[in-house]
Amino acid sequence: MTTQLHAAGTIGVFDSGLGGLTALRRLRALAPQYDIIYFGDTARVPYGTRDTETLIRFARQNVEFLREQGAERVLVACGTISSVLPKEDWAKLPLPCWGVIHAAADAALAATKNGRIGILATPATIRSGSYVQRLESRAEGLVTVPVACPDFVPLIESGKAESDEFRQAARGYLADIRAAGCDTVILGCTHYPLACRILGEELGNGVTLIDSGGEAAAALLNQLQGIPHSGSGKLRCCVSGDAGVFARNAEALLGSSLLPQVEQVTL
Ligand code: DGL
Predict the structure, then answer these.
(1) Ligand 1: residues within 6 Å at CB?
(2) Which of 224, 174, 226, 234 has its CA nearest to residue 199?
């Protein structure tokens, strides 16, 4: 008997805005042959200060949108949705979906030498305890320092990832992580790697920053290994807010080569 492998089709990727581009960047770098559709829900960003019920609704709508556009599986490139969606709700989503928590936590465990791990993420992610639970289920005796950073996403979305304002906010958020001597810090919101220059400078040499979106993208590709794919490297990028603003911010942060024309869509 031969096993018929279903060819891997279009990968959908979504986030509240720019953050998921960190996952998209890694997908394109590692596997440019896949067809990808990206959705940034910029009309409703930020997600990280919203309640769980609302976030579950957004997750369903976003996955349904990506399904209608032809996606066959989805990378939930959003630490917040990945954290708050209850286990039973993942199975009810209209497509198979992968989150970012396990891959990022596992990368942090592989990187740390002193067992002291900081976690920077949105208020909803920190409240959920998702990263701490994953870390503690995989290793004993860790010191974890979770810190909610409500100001980071609005600053990054408004083009201020490189600003003094961002640096000031970072100094406050990083104080406990520095005091605890963490040698590894999970950037548990996918937006945060877009501000890695300032975060790296403020944490200093010798601290490893974990790119949650990038790690999740690599983990998904690992799972797809061996499955033939039907893609030819097509990329679409859709947002629910202003396409021009998104395109300009994305280009400033990631360069002009990553994204095609950005389309504005209504869910
Ligand atoms: N980038 C998302 C995350 O990883 C969403 C942040 C937000 O919109 O607050 O949590």
Answers:
(1) 15-16, 19, 45-48, 78-80, 122, 125, 153, 189-191
(2) 174
